[in-house]
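=== RUN LOG ===
request id: a7f3
mode: sequence -> structure
chains: 1
length: 337
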Amino acid sequence: FGLLLLAFFCTFFFVTLLCGPLMAQARKGTVSRSLSGSGKVRVSPSAADERKFKSILVLSLLPKVAERQVLSGVALELGRQCRFRTVKINGNNISDILKAELRRKPRPEAIISLGTRPSKFLAARTLPVPVVSLGVNQILKRDLPPSHMAKIKGVDFELCQKTILQKLSMLVPNARKIGELKELREKTSESGLIATKKLENSRYTLLSYGVKRRRDIARTSLKLLRNVDVLWLRPSRLLNQPDTVRYLMGKALELGRPVIGLSQNYVRAGALFCLQPDFKDIGAQLAVVLKEGDGAKTGLKPPRLSILCVNARVAQLLGLRLSSAILNEKDVVVVRK
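=== RESULT ===
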């Protein structure tokens, strides 16, 4: 019995000694024999071998709160070793900033673009490091040629229209006509009603009013508000200036028209509600796209999670009742100012 036990332990020792390196490779990836029958073992990389990003340049146009939430989501996905260098940009300094940052030693290993404007700028250039973008897909498709659009990877800032309309039907059940202001770029166009269309799979009609010059905003917005039930504010460089937003909010409340805002700041300023993406989860999505590298699909993915923000005081002023079904939803922020 003693000899058998000794033989067993000796066999186990030699098997462990011979197979140890192979087992270590198997833990790192998937082990498979080549079909040629040569007996060589090749190890395919697994999730544990994904590239680690230690230095990331962030070109940001987002407010500080949203920016922090996005980057916390990125760090959560990429790990604690990730370090960000965040640069606030405007429309004129992107090129100079990018050149200076790419000359730095060590050079950033990736670029995250937080905003539609820097995303358009980066898409038009060939860069030595991977880029992921957060922007408005609708604007990028309108402004970029297909060859540039094909290079963009990241997450769309806007939620799908269907989701927003579902929340609108719960908050303003009697609304039928939605109005939006658009910035006109064509020289031949004049401010005023430019389009009317029935929104697909809904009861709503969308009336689009174009604004060509800043001085036309007051006259055109008054026409719009008198003909619609709800004002929907959309991304626009001309129309999203602070003084313009305050004017539109005040005029809409004066005429008893609810406003759909772009963010929680709009709701605090007087919009009835906004449905915005969960910025922390967007950060996680951007990090996943970054890790996928060349294998990631081009285009902007829709946000996975959203947060509904409602202004209870504005709802009361407009004579709207906030049902318990809305207030008891998981991701709802109620502003009472």
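=== NOTES ===
The longest strand covers residues 177-183.
The first helix runs from residue 2 to 28.
=== END ===
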